[in-house]
């Protein structure tokens, strides 16, 4: 996968309209997202690893930045150059308000092909917290291959997923419906390895949202280096 030019990742095009539907759900959720998920110890710890492992002033992509909290703010406050993307216009607006020192764009991951926001090797690090779980499993290897190409050699990826054996599964979420995918942890390790990443660290957290109908979950955080 990593040897293939990301311009060939046609797989990321297939469900663009469906992902737009996901974005509409998050537009409706808006800043209620942060109210429902107030405690993000795992994400903060992973963000600290990414921030501290990279040189000061590194260019970092926040994929699926949401409201900009906590990751874009955390990385920006540490002196990194943060570029956040999200499909939801409401989330991008909130992120710009919360983290004025960062750069945010309303973009889909597929829009990053062809040099948008840079090109191969244009990022020192990438944070992808619970963003790839919004894709069907068939698209996740393509997305990881694209992220691999966007990183400089030995660049770092902080990735989180929910541990679950599901593929494009519809769940209720803050009064809306979204579709999610997940892996059991051994399967997730295999998928990231096949995409050209070495696992240099791993954590798991049990998480129960504060005010949502989503049941408690196991969150997996992988710290990856481009091989």
TrEMBL record:
<dbReference type="GO" id="GO:0032259">
    <property type="term" value="P:methylation"/>
</dbReference>
<dbReference type="Pfam" id="PF13649">
    <property type="entry name" value="Methyltransf_25"/>
</dbReference>
<dbReference type="GO" id="GO:0008168">
    <property type="term" value="F:methyltransferase activity"/>
</dbReference>
<dbReference type="InterPro" id="IPR050508">
    <property type="entry name" value="Methyltransf_Superfamily"/>
</dbReference>
<protein>
    <submittedName>
        <fullName>Methyltransferase</fullName>
    </submittedName>
</protein>
<feature type="domain" description="Methyltransferase">
    <location>
        <begin position="60"/>
        <end position="155"/>
    </location>
</feature>
<keyword id="KW-0489">Methyltransferase</keyword>
<dbReference type="InterPro" id="IPR041698">
    <property type="entry name" value="Methyltransf_25"/>
</dbReference>
<keyword id="KW-0808">Transferase</keyword>
<dbReference type="InterPro" id="IPR029063">
    <property type="entry name" value="SAM-dependent_MTases_sf"/>
</dbReference>
């Amino acid at each position: 996968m990593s040897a293939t030019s990301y311009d060939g990742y046609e797989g990321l095009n297939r469900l663009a309209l469906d992902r737009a539907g996901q974005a509409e759900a998050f537009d409706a959720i808006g800043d209620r997202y942060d109210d429902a998920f107030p405690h993000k110890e795992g994400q903060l710890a992973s963000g600290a690893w990414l921030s501290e492992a990279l040189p000061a002033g590194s260019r970092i992509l926040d994929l699926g930045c949401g409201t900009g909290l906590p990751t874009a703010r955390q990385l920006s406050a540490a002196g990194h150059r943060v570029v956040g993307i999200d499909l939801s216009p409401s989330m991008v607006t909130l992120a710009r308000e919360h983290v004025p020192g960062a750069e945010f764009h309303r973009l889909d991951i597929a829009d990053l092909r062809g040099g948008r926001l840079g090109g191969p090797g244009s990022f020192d690090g990438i944070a992808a917290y619970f963003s790839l779980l919004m894709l069907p499993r068939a698209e996740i290897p393509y997305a990881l291959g694209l992220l691999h190409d966007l990183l400089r050699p030995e660049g770092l990826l902080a990735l989180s997923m929910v541990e679950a054996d599901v593929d494009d599964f519809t769940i209720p979420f803050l009064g809306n419906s979204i579709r999610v995918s997940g892996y059991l942890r051994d399967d997730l390790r295999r998928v990231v390895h096949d995409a050209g990443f070495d696992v240099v660290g791993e954590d798991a957290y049990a998480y129960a949202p504060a005010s949502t109908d989503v049941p408690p979950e196991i969150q997996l955080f992988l710290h990856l280096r481009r091989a």
